[in-house]
Amino acid sequence: MTLTIDNLSKRYGSTVALDGVSFEVRPGELFGFVGSNGAGKTTTMRIALGVLAADSGEVRLDGKPVDLEVRRTIGYMPEERGLYPKMKVGNQLTYLAQLHGLSKRDATAAMQRWTERLGIAERIGDTVDSLSLGNQQRVQLAAALIHDPAVLVLDEPFSGLDPVAVDVMSEVLVEKANTGVPVIFSSHQLDLVQRLCKRVGIIVHGRMRVVGEVDELRASGSAHLVVHAPDAPVGWADGLPGVSDAEYLDGRTTLAVEPGADDQQILKTALSTGPVHEFSLEQPSLTDLFREVVAA
């Protein structure tokens, strides 16, 4: 299935929340949806779920507009806690599964399977508000997965998780994508988005600024030359042809180089100061790219 976001616009009075937002999430794809706070990520996701109505535009799943029947096939994890705090974990997940149409037997089996997979099986008799924030997040993911959804829409699913929990959640999302499920998630942890996602979209002030493959976007950014010359004085690369900026820190220099710059001349200059332990060209990270897009 393909989730299509087609030209969504949304206003709150004079405030433009979304302005012609369009992108798609393909079958078996992990799509990273990134942007600053207030950029429009949550609004887009809520419209995709039918929680909010767009002023214009449309959301489609495999070409079919999202209605109540289609929404039942979507697994949604909101950024804010969306669980009943005084209800026990196991009872709550079973109840939510039954709301999605599972029989009581199938709902109980799904609850047991997902709580075991997410490492919270021993907490099914506890109320949600007695859990740590990280374990509450795991329960929220279980709630999104409990009905074997055809699409996953996750708003900041990694927020508040320790490294082990991040690994578990990452594995689950990759497993779901590998079964053909389109998965879209937002996150401020851009290193994680870069590692998990083949494609990303960057939204700024309600407009999609960039949509594309992570590797292609990084290759189109400004590359940096990293030089570790421990004896080189600060300022050794200043003024070299093709070097537009230089940062010096403890013998490690990061150079912003222009296309066509003579790297051999830069290396020769570095060697003239003493030994060179590292000389490598680094593509910008997704974090670097994000900063460039937001600042543009």
From TrEMBL:
Query: Pfam families from the entry?
Result: ABC_tran (PF00005), DrrA1-3_C (PF13732)
- PROSITE patterns membership: ABC_TRANSPORTER_1, ABC_TRANSPORTER_2
Q: Which is an annotated GO molecular function term of this record?
A: ATP binding
Q: Which SUPFAM superfamilies match?
A: P-loop containing nucleoside triphosphate hydrolases
SMART domains found in the cross-reference section:
AAA (SM00382)
Keywords assigned: ATP-binding, Nucleotide-binding, Transport
Give every ABC transporter domain span. Answer: 3-230
Q: What is stated as this protein's family in its record?
A: Belongs to the ABC transporter superfamily.
Q: What is this protein called?
A: ABC transporter ATP-binding protein
The lineage is: Bacteria, Bacillati, Actinomycetota, Actinomycetes, Mycobacteriales
Q: Encoded by which gene?
A: ybhF_3
